[in-house]
Every structure is written in structure tokens, then in C-alpha cells.
Amino acid sequence: MNMNYTAEELAFRDEVRAFLDAKLPADIAAKVKGFRKLSKEDHQRWQKILSEQGWYATHWPEQYGGVSWTPVQKHIWDEESCRYGVPRSIPFGVNMVAPVIIKFGSEEQKQQYLPRILSGEDWWCQGYSEPGAGSDLASLKTRAVREGDHYIVNGQKTWTTLGQHANMIFCLVRTNTEVKAQEGISFLLIDMNTPGITVRPIITLDGEHEVNEVFFEDVKVPAENLVGEENKGWTYAKYLLTYERTGLAGIGLSKAALTHLKQLASRQVKNGKPLIQDQTFSQRIAQVEIDLMAAAISNLRIVASVEGGGVPGAESSMLKVRGTEIRQAINDLARRAIGPYAIPFVEEEMDQAYDGEFLSDPGAAPLAAHYFNNRKLSIFGGSNEIQKNIVSKMILGL
Amino acid sequence: MDFRLNEEQQMLQDTVARLVRGEYSFEKRLEYSESELGFSESFWKQLGELGLMAVPFPEELGGFGGTGVEVQSVMTELGRGLCIEPYLQSVVLGGGLISQAGNEQQKEQWLAGIATGETQVAVGLQEPQSFYNTNDVETTAEKAGSDYVLNGRKAVVIGGHSADLLVVSARTSGSSRDASGISLFVIDANADGLERRSYPTIDGAKGCDLLLNNVKVGADALLGSEGEAADAIEYQVGRAISALCGEAVGVMEVACDLTLDYLKQRKQFGVPIGKFQVLQHRMADMMSELEQARSMAILAASVADEPQSDERRRVIAAAKNVISRSAQFISEKGVQSHGGIGMTWEYNFAHYAKRLVMINHQLGDDDFHLERYAALLEAN
């Protein structure tokens, strides 16, 4: 039983901190910590800095330009980057499609796409969900029919995060309708500029344009854009989902959100004293901090088991449920902490710092919207109910 | 980073597991519980003979030098067997208080017997009005020459009915909830003026209330400096909470196993009830609670024998808060998943369910520890 970092791991942590101290732009960190909107330019500026450091592709083998970090080092990076207010990597290229290409793609695909992901030249989005295929993803209907050396794609994808910025999309498409749903799915890489693709925004309840619908009408996709074998897409998708689930618990993000909450509650006043000293509110904070403490140890136990050669299994599902519930609880408290100032909805205040026009705490503007936005946490990446199905099947054998 | 037990710790846990398997069938446990002693004398002796009671004591006193992890290894297996021997009270808490607060002579006098099981200790730290606050002491100890005369009441002293020695807190100065002015005394269970009102507990053990009516003890019964026992009490309760977390994990493990087995066996509407998603998700929630509890037990063990600090206080309070809630959750949801059979005396699950809820009532419940944690909250 040993919960401490080794000397090498501590040295790595110092290296990470020194890098972030020197290179993380203060304006970006302030936006991240205050839950304010990041522009496409913000993301690209930071990605360039990370790429120059060689720390962008933390899930890739070194031969493709990745970093060969141990699970503990990845964990340290996650903890520190959340603490410092590093923007979350847009995962679709670097953490999602790239591992699939590396594992199942052709040599040509590796050479064509991986360098462009590293350099930020390509912005990828994900074409999985459809109006009729959410949790039941395998029921997807977007059809790809082989005609000569092309596939002709017809159908609709939805919930496509940041698809408005993307020039590439990886899609699950149906290539065989005669067999069991899972066995007729293929994994296609599609250029968003191909004729026949239309992207339409979906505005979420917080007024945000984060997700989109993507329509495909007789879209011609070169056959060499098929990853691996035809009709094996479901296998690749499942491989990718295990990547997605790791880290969805967002323990580091919850820690950062809790720090933000406590600072906010120290500034807010109730009955003439800081809100954080209010009996009811301090106990609410205490409860979520305690639950986060437990989840953080559960997370470390998974990290240590992977470090020891294990594979993160359904424990990640349990932690995804727990972690997202905790983060939502923190978002809930941040919203409560600003009292009636949760009510005003002043979108221009969410992009930049408060300029003195309103009477609220300077950090108040985005908090209610952020709370609503993060209701997504328990829905995406496999809804929390789906995670419990996975636990029932994989751990409990029910 | 490595969360596994080392070889020695694993051997220790296996030893306890074997002993429990041999001695603690469900039927035997009911016999032990209904006996006059209220637990198994032979099991108690074997715990001593195998060196398991010496685990937390320093090597120079014939102990094993074990810390939080080793104590939890023992307690988890005692929990799995739903053992009712007062190990926690005698070895961890009683032995711990004497180790920390006692002088050399006192340690020599008592610890060897505790570490072999020849001496059984019970600890009276709470009173009818104290509601888990160990500083809320109204029992008094007045100086009479070089002696002390104790008067007052001690509440729910588990194992007190059969103890040879009682360690009790009493106020030598100050007023009701002051931290200063609390002293610890070691009292012979047969002392004049000491009345024990014994009773069975709802989770199968035995305990008593203590009435102290002009109980006279010598100065050599005082543990540590007069009026300065609060720190030792807080520290040793912290160690005991860590140990209790270990027990709770063991009880929860078996409660979850039993429930899962039942979901696979019990058929309704022509299928095992575990095919129903509403029951699958509840079971997944129970497992998730168990994982959280395991994590906090590990964390508590890691600070149990560290020097006192606000960080240690926070971890201990957090651990007891999480463990108490997980335990009650698994108890209630487990009974519900079993249906009527989970309510019956004849079925072992019901006894696990009772123990799980009563763990919340020992050493401070989840509300008590949430308040403690909130009081130590850092603004960042």
C-alpha cells in the first residue's frame, strides 16, 4: 500500500508545472477557470504551444509523434492542467480518431492524417449519434453504398460537437442491412467540404452553439477512407469508446470547479458573513468535497492498476457516473452561491471579464448557463444509465 | 503508487479469514450472540494466541508494530464474518488510549494482557447527553487526597458488560463541553460503586451503560496528565474510525455478494430478477457505494497513525461520513432487493443489514462528521 508518487514522478510534476508557469497564456487560463467561452483561435493557439512542447498527443505511441507517458504521468498531467486552467483538448482528432487510425488504419491513413492532427491542420468531429440512434447507437441508419471506388453516403448525424469548426468527420455508417445491427457498420473518414454535406447548428438551452446536425446527401467518399475492414466498424467504435470513457469522470475538472466554488463562496455574503461560513452552505460544500475525495482515490486506484499492467474496465463506468454527478453537484452549488444573480442572462458578459456594468460578483455571469450546459455530463459518453448497464453486464454478470 | 496489500499484510488478512471461516458459521454466531458472554470465548482466545490482538502494538511491547492498514486487514475479515468480539474496543481503542496516554508503568501493567486477550477492555467516552461529542463530559472525578472519586454515567459501552477493565473519561476541571479538563481513568470492572446495566445490541453484540457512584481509584489509575486527555481521545477515536471503516468494508462486501447471488437465483415472472434493469441499476449503485467506501477506508488507514493535523482530522471525518452513508445505502437497498426474505431473522443478510446501519451510530454518524469536516473547510 503506497499512495505516494516516486521521485521520478515528482520530478515530472515539477516539469509540468514549470512548463505551465512559463507557457500557458494567462488570458486563456482565466477564461477556463471562470467557465467563460473559448474561441476557436484560443484552442488553436494553445494546441500550437502544446505541439511545440511535444505534449499534445498523450495517447499515441512515440513513433507517430506521441508522448510515452505512463498512466501515472498522464494522471499528473491531467491534475496539473486542470488546476492551472488549461483548456480541454478537443478530443475528436487527437484522442479519438487517431488511436483508431493507429490501431486499425492503413499505413497511408496514418501518414496522411496523423501529422495533420498533430499540427492542428485538421479539425475533426464525430459522426456517431443519429436522431434515431442515441444510447442504442448500433441502430444507426446513415447508409454508405459502395459504387466502384467510392461510397455514396446518405443520412443524418446529430449532436456533432464543434462540427461548425471541423474540416473532417469520422462516421459510423451502415454498409450492410442484411445482418445483425452491429455487424453491418463501417468506420468512414469524410472530408466536411465534400459536396452534399450540410451542417446546421443546434442551440442548447444555455444559448450556446456547441453541437450540430450534419446532413449527408449523396456524398461521395473515396473507398480508401474506410478504416480497417468493411462491417467491422462497431469493433473500432467500441475500442474508441473505452478511450472516451477514461477521463470522462473529470476528477481534475471537479477539483478545479471546487476551488472556484470555494473562492466564490468566500466572496459572496450571507447574513453579513462569507457564504462559506454559513452553516448550511458550508455543509453542502463539505459533502461534495468529501465525495470528491473518495472519487479521487477511486480514480487513483484505477490509474495504479493500469500502471501495473491492468486494463481499465467497467470500473471506469462506475467512476464516470460518480464523477459526473459530483461535477454537476459542484455546478449546482456555484449557481446557488450567486443567489438571485443566477437569473440575469447577459451573453456578452460570458465572453470577457466583467466591466462594472452589473452589480453581481464579477464571476457570476456564466454560472447558471454553465450549470445548465453541464447537464450534458450525465448524458454524453454513454449516458449514466448506459454505464450502469455496462457495470451490470461486465462486473456483476447480470 | 500501489494499492495492493503487501505479502505480510495479505498473509495477516488470510490468517484472520481462515480463523473466521472455521469458527463463524451463521448458526454459531447466533449461539455466541445469545450466550451470557455475548461472544465466543474460544474465538477471542484464538485471536490472542495467533497474535492478532498484538497487531497494533509496538514490537518492544510484544506487538507486531502494525499501523492502519494492518488493523484494517484484521477488521475487514472480522466484518466479513460479522464477528461480535469487542476487538475494536479492547485492542484498538482501549489499547490505543493506554499506549498513547499511559506512563511506562501503566503500559507494562496492562498492554501485555490486552495484546494476548487475557484482559478485555471496554471504553466509556460517551454519555447520555453527549451525542458523539467526546468533549461533552459531565462525569466528574474529584480529587480526594491522592485518590480520585468518580461520579456520573457512561452510555453504550460496547463490550462493557464483560470487560475486565474500563477506560472512562471524566471531568477534573472546566465545564460541560470544554476540551480542557477531561481526564482518562482505568477502572477495574469490579470496583465498588460501579454499576453495569447490560443489554444486547440490535446488531448481535452486548454492551452496557455504566453508572459511577463514588467510584474511588488511586492516582495510578489516571492515564496521562490530569485534564489533558482530549487530544489522546480525539487521536485514538481517529484510529478506531479507520479500523471501523475496515470492518464496514468487510460487511459491505458480503452484503453486496449476498444480494448479487440472490438477484441471480430468485425467479419471478419466469426469469431471474437480476434480469430487470431497475434491480441491475440498484445493484450497480450498491457496488459503486462499496468502491467509494473502499477508497475512503484506504485513505483513513493511510493517516490513522500519522501525527495529528487538520489534514488527518479532515480525512477521518470524511471517511466516517462516506462509510456511514455507503453502509446505510447498501443495507437499505440490499433489504429492498431481497424483498421479504431480507427481513427475516433466519437469513444472514438481515444481520449484515443491521450491522451496517449500526456502524453509523458508532464513533459519530455521518451528520456529526459532516459538521466536523465543514468546520475544518479550507477557503482555498
UniProtKB/TrEMBL annotation, chain A:
Residue intervals of the Acyl-CoA oxidase/dehydrogenase middle domain: 125-219
Location of the Acyl-CoA dehydrogenase/oxidase C-terminal domain: 231-395
Coiled-coil ranges from the UniProt annotation: none
Pfam families listed in its UniProt record: Acyl-CoA_dh_1, Acyl-CoA_dh_M, Acyl-CoA_dh_N
Domain of life: Bacteria
Cofactor(s) needed by this chain: FAD
Positions of the Acyl-CoA dehydrogenase/oxidase N-terminal domain: 6-121
Transmembrane segments: none
Sorted UniProt keywords: FAD, Flavoprotein, Oxidoreductase
Gene Ontology molecular functions: flavin adenine dinucleotide binding; oxidoreductase activity, acting on the CH-CH group of donors
InterPro entries xrefs: Acyl-CoA_Oxase/DH_mid-dom, Acyl-CoA_Oxase/DH_mid-dom_sf, AcylCo_DH-like_C, AcylCo_DH/oxidase_C, AcylCoA_DH/ox_N, AcylCoA_DH/ox_N_sf, AcylCoA_DH/oxidase_NM_dom_sf, Mycobact_Acyl-CoA_DH
GO CC terms in record: plasma membrane
Family, similarity comment: Belongs to the acyl-CoA dehydrogenase family.
Name the UniProt record assigns to this protein: Pimeloyl-CoA dehydrogenase large subunit
UniProtKB/TrEMBL annotation, chain B:
TM regions (residue ranges): none
Domain of life: Bacteria
Stored CDD domains: ACAD (cd00567)
Gene3D superfamilies associated with the record: Acyl-CoA dehydrogenase/oxidase, N-terminal domain, Butyryl-CoA Dehydrogenase, subunit A, domain 2, Butyryl-CoA Dehydrogenase, subunit A, domain 3
Domain Acyl-CoA dehydrogenase/oxidase C-terminal, chain residue ranges per copy: 243-371
Pfam families in UniProt: Acyl-CoA_dh_1 (PF00441), Acyl-CoA_dh_M (PF02770), Acyl-CoA_dh_N (PF02771)
Domain called Acyl-CoA dehydrogenase/oxidase N-terminal: residue spans: 6-118
Residue span, Acyl-CoA oxidase/dehydrogenase middle domain: 123-214
Keywords from the UniProt entry: FAD, Flavoprotein, Oxidoreductase
GO molecular function: acyl-CoA dehydrogenase activity; flavin adenine dinucleotide binding
Entry annotated with the keyword S-adenosyl-L-methionine: no
Cofactor(s) required for function per UniProt: FAD
Listed InterPro entries: Acyl-CoA_Oxase/DH_mid-dom, Acyl-CoA_Oxase/DH_mid-dom_sf, AcylCo_DH-like_C, AcylCo_DH/oxidase_C, AcylCoA_DH/ox_N, AcylCoA_DH/ox_N_sf, AcylCoA_DH/oxidase_NM_dom_sf
Protein family: Belongs to the acyl-CoA dehydrogenase family.
Protein's name according to its UniProt entry: Pimeloyl-CoA dehydrogenase small subunit
Taxonomic source organism: Marinobacter vinifirmus
